[in-house]
């Protein structure tokens, strides 16, 4: 009997996926982002005409979907109140609200004061004249017969 080699080419090896790597950092800190991870077609790698791996080399998932914190912002000041005094120095106040926007989702309150105050009607108050007490009577203009004091 005689024998000889045949079909000596290597057999095809179909590719197989390796393990997925770690997830990437989320693309956003809040409000919804994405993470990805990838794997390689290397367990084994396709060889000798074998098929590539089936499926995707990367996958993606949502992350950090919680609402973002919103720091508060002041609205416009309202009108000044009426002065507390008509003259001699009084005070006026006005206020604003932390609502432009209002703090939300753990955001910071507005910096600063909600009210402010100023002096008003600082002019001196008018003073009406008033009589003092009469002084002593003067001496009579006549010694007798009727005079004036």
Distance between the termini: 175 Å
**What order do the strands of the largest sheet run in, or round the barrel if closed?**
1-2
Instruction: Tell me the structural class.
Output: mainly beta
Outline type: rod-shaped
Number of helices: 0
> Regions with pLDDT < 50 over 5+ consecutive residues?
none
Q: Compute the gyration radius: what is it?
A: 48 Å
Give the overall pLDDT as a whole number: 95
Strand content: 15-25%
State the helicity in percent bands: under 10%
String of helices and strands: EEEE
How many E strands? 4
Main sheet: strands, sense, barrel: 2 strands, antiparallel
Write a concise synopsis of the structure shown.
The chain is mostly beta strands and 149 residues long. It has strands spanning 33-38, 58-63, 90-95, 115-120.
Structural account:
This protein has 149 residues and is mostly beta strands. The protein is 0% helix and 16% strand. The radius of gyration is 48 Å and the shape is rod-shaped. The relative contact order is 0.15.
Blueprint (SSEs and pairs):
Layout: E1 33-38, E2 58-63, E3 90-95, E4 115-120
Antiparallel strand pairs: 1-2, 3-4
What distinguishing features does this structure have?
149 residues; mainly beta; 4 strands
